[in-house]
Design brief:
This protein has six helices and six strands, in the order ααβαβαβαβαββ. α5 packs parallel to α6. The chain has a single domain, classed as Rossmann fold (3-Layer(aba) Sandwich), CATH 3.40.50.300. It has 162 residues and is an alpha/beta fold. The protein is globular. The strands form two sheets. It has a four-stranded parallel beta sheet with strand order 2-1-3-4, with helices on both faces. It has a two-stranded antiparallel ribbon with strand order 5-6. The protein starts with a helix and ends with a strand. β5 and β6 form a beta hairpin.
């Protein structure tokens, strides 16, 4: 864990450098969208809040955190045709977030999902750890299946998934 903590600064710096490098592409993707909504639960809310600040200060686009229960519990019909909905899941396990992503697309939103890829690290030493890794992979596959476009991004490099 100490090693991961020590790597955070470099990882954030690389991510911010890539975001800055691609700012024009991000603007173009969101050009016909008047607002950006972030969808997250748990610790991913912190990443979403940070994303909101980045979007508003760097892109000049209004952003907010969406309430997932508006879709999952209340099943509200909202006009999201002017929105880009960004779903964030650090674990990739939250089925609710996948459901909200699909709902947002059906309400006219352009959607983006951000999740960690868990299969690239060291093979977990325990049976339960390997099962956890496999389940996260299954959830990430379901996200890709629900998406119009899917990208694998590592170290600031991206690869479009077919």
């Amino acid at each position: 864990m100490r090693r991961e903590i020590a790597e955070q600064g470099a990882a954030v710096a690389a991510t911010l450098a890539e975001v800055r490098r691609r700012a024009d592409q991000v603007r173009a993707a969101a050009s016909d969208r008047r607002r950006i909504l972030f969808v997250a639960r748990g610790s991913s809310d912190n990443a979403a809040i940070y994303g909101r600040y980045l979007v508003e200060t760097q892109l000049g686009v209004p952003a907010a955190l969406a309430a997932p229960s508006v879709a999952t519990h209340y099943r509200a019909r909202l006009d999201l045709s002017d929105a880009l909905v960004v779903s964030v899941s650090q674990s990739g396990r939250t089925a609710e977030i996948v459901e909200v992503q699909r709902w947002a697309g059906s309400m006219g939103a352009a959607t983006v999902a951000i999740s960690n890829e868990v299969g690239l690290g060291v093979v977990p030493a325990t049976r339960l750890g390997r099962r956890y890794r496999d389940l996260l992979g299954e959830v990430n596959r379901s996200w890709v299946g629900a998406a119009e476009e899917s990208w694998f991004v590592v170290a600031g490099r991206r690869l479009r998934l077919e």
